[in-house]
Automatic annotation (TrEMBL):
UniProt cross-references to Gene3D superfamilies, sorted A to Z: Glutaredoxin
Source species of the chain: Celeribacter arenosi
PANTHER family, per the entry: ELECTRON TRANSPORT PROTIN SCO1/SENC FAMILY MEMBER, LINALOOL DEHYDRATASE_ISOMERASE DOMAIN-CONTAINING PROTEIN
Family according to the record: Belongs to the SCO1/2 family.
Coiled coil: none
Protein name per the record: SCO family protein
InterPro entries membership: SCO1/SenC, Thioredoxin-like_sf
Length: 209
């Protein structure tokens, strides 16, 4: 792939990220019980992000959001054919999970594919195992993935018209902290380090006790 193509993809990804960022503001809400933990806030409140959906777990079992978020979870939407962003973000998320586990926190990471046509359960399982033994991968029907994506206000667009086999997918790149009892809690940007993610996640967990 040419440098020009990569540059075009990067521009599209940035543009998509800026569009999704309209949902987010940088000042925590004053009535937020987790305000001391947040570095950001969501337009409309935390309840504007998340909602019911179902996807197919990497072992082939269809599960609901309630069955996924049984412990604090760092969630990411991506795809396994992604040439650079998704692997880097997934490794960063896995590193944050390891840091939290070293501190005694029981957490998990989850990866939902936005490319269900290519990402079978076997492919997703193999991909997530590269980063952490306990990173859970999910895929599903296009309708299931669309519902999950809309719940978390993510963006994606597959360019199957350019290459029906080796196409790329533009997508937003936020990672989300989801708590088992309160749902969506926080989002992380690409520039957030594993240490920053671990520290903020630990704050939410401690505050929820």
């Amino acid at each position: 792939m040419s440098t020009r193509t990569f540059a075009s993809i990067a521009i599209l990804a940035v543009a998509a990220g800026l569009g999704i960022s309209a949902w987010f503001a940088m000042k925590p809400a004053s009535d937020d019980p987790f305000a001391q933990c947040r570095a950001s806030a969501v337009s409309g409140g935390a309840g504007a992000i998340g909602g019911p959906f179902e996807v197919v777990r990497e072992d082939g079992v269809t599960v609901t959001d309630a069955e996924i978020f049984t412990k604090p979870t760092i969630l990411y939407f991506g795809y396994t054919f992604c040439p650079d962003v998704c692997p880097l973000d997934s490794m960063r998320n896995a590193d944050a999970q390891r840091l939290l586990e070293e501190r005694g926190y029981d957490v998990q990471t989850a990866f939902i594919s936005i490319d269900p046509n290519r990402d079978t359960v076997e492919v997703v399982a193999e991909f997530t195992d590269l980063f952490h033994d306990n990173m859970i991968g999910f895929t599903g029907s296009p309708e299931q993935i669309s519902t999950a994506s809309k719940a978390f206000k993510t963006y994606f667009k597959a360019h199957t018209d350019e290459d029906p086999e080796y196409y790329l997918v533009d997508h937003s790149t936020f990672s989300y902290l989801v708590m088992p009892d309160t749902g969506f809690a926080e989002f992380f940007r690409r520039e957030d380090s594993p240490e920053t993610m671990a520290e903020r996640t630990a704050c939410f967990i401690d505050a929820a006790k």
